[in-house]
Amino acid sequence: xxxxxxxxxxxxxxxxxxxxxxxxxxxxxxxxxxxxxxxxxxxxxxxxxxxxxxxxxxxxxxxxxxxxxxxxxxxxx
Amino acid sequence: xxxxxxxxxxxxxxxxxxxxxxxxxxxxxxxxxxxxxxxxxxxxxxxxxxxxxxxxxxxxxxxxxxxxxxxxxxxxxxxxxxxxxxxxxxxxxxxxxxxxxxxxxxxxxxxxxxxxxxxxxxxxxxxxxxxxxxxxxxxxxxxxxxxxxxxxxxxxxxxxxxxxxxxxxxxxxxxxxxxxxxxxxxxxxxxxxxxxxxxxxxxxxxxxxxxxxxxxxxxxxxxxxxxxxxxxxxxxxxxxxxxxxxxxxxxxxxxxxxxxxxxxxxxxxxxxxxxxxxxxxxxxxxxxxxxxxxxxxxxxxxxxxxxxxxxxxxxxxxxxxxxxxxxxxxxxxxxxxxxxxxxxxxxxxxxxxxxxxxxxxxxxxxxxxxxxxxxxxxxxxxxxxxxxxxxxxxxxxxxxxxxxxxxxxxxxxxxxxxxxxxxxxxxxxxxxxxxxxxxxxxxxxxxxxxxxxxxxxxxxxxxxxxxxxxxxxxxxxxxxxxxxxxxxxxxxxxxxxxxxxxxxxxxxxxxxxxxxxxxxxxxxxxxxxxxxxxxxxxxxxxxxxxxxxxxxxxxxxxxxxxxxxxxxxxxxxxxxxxxxxxxxxxxxxxxxxxxxxxxxxxxxxxxxxxxxxxxxxxxxxxxxxxxxxxxxxxxxxxxxxxxxxxxxxxxxxxxxxxxxxxxxxxxxxxxxxxxxxxxxxxxxxxxxxxxxxxxxxxxxxxxxxxxxxxxxxxxxxxxxxxxxxxxxxxxxxxxxxxxx
Lengths: 77, 740
Ligand SMILES: Nc1nc2c(ncn2[C@@H]2O[C@H](COP(=O)(O)OP(=O)(O)OP(=O)(O)O)[C@@H](O)[C@H]2O)c(=O)[nH]1
Fold this sequence. Notes:
The complex is a heterodimer of chains A (77) and B (740).
Chain A: E1 2-5, E2 14-20, H1 24-32, E3 40-46, E4 53-57, E5 60-64, H2 66-69, E6 72-76
Antiparallel strand pairs in A: 1-6, 2-3, 2-6, 3-4, 4-5
Chain B: E1 2-9, H1 15-23, E2 27-31, E3 38-46, E4 49-55, H2 67-79, E5 83-89, H3 93-106, E6 110-115, H4 117-122, E7 125-127, H5 129-136, E8 140-142, H6 151-164, H7 177-192, H8 202-210, H9 214-223, H10 225-246, H11 250-266, E9 271-273, H12 282-290, H13 295-336, H14 341-358, H15 361-377, H16 379-393, H17 400-409, H18 415-421, H19 428-437, H20 447-457, H21 462-486, E10 498-500, H22 508-542, H23 548-565, H24 567-575, H25 584-607, H26 609-621, H27 628-636, H28 643-651, H29 663-671, H30 677-689, H31 694-704, H32 707-735
Parallel strand pairs in B: 1-4, 1-5, 5-6, 6-8
Antiparallel strand pairs in B: 2-3, 3-4, 7-9
Guanosine-5'-triphosphate binds next to helix 1 and helix 4 of chain B.
């Protein structure tokens, strides 16, 4: 088990969110969409310019910019 | 009885579909006061009861960060709907319940529509609605909004709730010992001083203080600063404690606990997954191709070009009908009204003005049909996803691309639907920057101006120059957007935390209603503001007209040539119709008369308010190489950009020039001293950047919600255009490029 930032995750890699390290509007939006500690996420793919990233959480697909994914810490197995 | 029902739910949960299914054509679209969020209302007759349905904006949560959320929240507390129907996407139960339990915490009566059960089923998700209903303590009715299944049962349950009118206690979720203790303490303080309790529940106010909710905090401060300070103190204390012990802020803790609560509910036999949740669905397989690194951009370009072709090819025929109709109307009015001001007002002011605007209607309809198709199918979200990296560099958002394309990103669009297309952008700053810069694109009305100038001065390099113009408009728009985003619209970029909805086949009804709504808004505008402005523009180009003595002199000139030509020629000309072949003598007479008419029109224009403005502006415009004739034409271009061409025609005494046939005018320009390729280039640059036409300005005002931005776009764009054109002209003149 190792904790890395979501930006570092590879395509198709999955993990469990361990912390969201941002407050304010961004933090709120991230949490509102179901990205909370304990949620399982999987990287679906990246846009042609490698940013934003598409992730799968709770059965739906969500997009985030890389600098936003930088605030999400994921435990990967 | 009458009941008021509010529809709420996450974006993409099928809210609009259900609303349309319920209200059909009995709906009304407006705006919430003071904001640009759309408000839809309608009625539904159920067993003889008239039910008033309001569609609230789709949101994921009830914080105070976005306008939509504030609007939804305010509606619930101020308008007190009898029931709130929360539409929940069954395929995404957990995230959708996050909003639902926030309604329950607010204490509003909620009836849940468990929508898209068909889609959920095909994903292997089974939901036990009864169990969910028992656990939540609220009705849960399975529906399929697309087919109307479950609609009756849903409304029956909602009406029953409305009739019973029993207000249940708000849901109480445990937020952990520390927060629970703080909430209790705050509740006590709130209740004893009746702090905000006439509108909100005490516990809810406490929660909002913990969540650091801007709206409630400022309301609280306004009403009772000392209680507010006391509450903030409690928040501060528990916040410090939480950060020290768990390294977490209260608002994060609250969100975590809410999801924890949802989890505990759905684990009690509410949901059954037949397949692994991360399994690839059809939609994901499509995405593997459609957002592929290499194929993705190619497909995207193909789709955008197809949208464009679709819009402009298919709308051409109905646009032609509109044009012929208004042409016929103009001719009929000309034939039946006596010569003079009234005729000029009706024909040039009213019919040409409104006709020009209504002529766009089919174009706008097709454009919005195309956009609705891309939006409802889910493809638009992918376009935003793929292009976000590029647009973000300029302070914009991936979704901005649609507005640019529609406005003429591929030469020939129209900024009016372009400005309206910015509605799909949910981020306010990015949206404003987009709608202020889309008018720089090469819209269809600017093309005749470019074609005229290219034909006169750059005939050999037509394609290259056109391409260069398109690139200049893109570069200009993006750079100006960046400039605006670091100056007057500065601020953090809105997070790109966005859902990629599964691909869905759009329904015909959905597309039709969507398209009609937008088109109708446009028509309503054309009927009111735009009519007024086109009359003002007409008056500016007409008054004060020539003094009587001068008119007399022109009449005398006509008489003189007629006398010189002889009576037979005059009679032949008067009896002739358009297609008759004239004898040499009367043809010469006709030409002489046309020249005199042209001179008179030129003098009249020069003497009009617009003409005087043109002359007065020469002092400034000469730096960019424009004389008064060009200036008037540009003033006229405010009505619609192609008017630049016809006005130039009048100013060069060629009479009105049809923008489609500019041969003689471009010849005249090429041979007029004072014109050079450099002047033409400077004018091209000016035309790309200067004030948008007034229809676009009216739409900018509407979409930005303030006159300020309309005025800004006229002033800023014109100054920018003047500076750029002056630079081109001065640098060119100094270096001796293109001067002859
Ligand atoms: N399979 C299925 N599709 C549905 C159902 N209800 C709606 N849809 C489709 O889901 C898509 C989104 O529906 P909308 O009604 O536009 O959703 P909305 O909640 O209004 O979304 P926003 O307009 O983004 O707020 C449309 O393509 C609908 O046709 C349903 O019960 N089953």
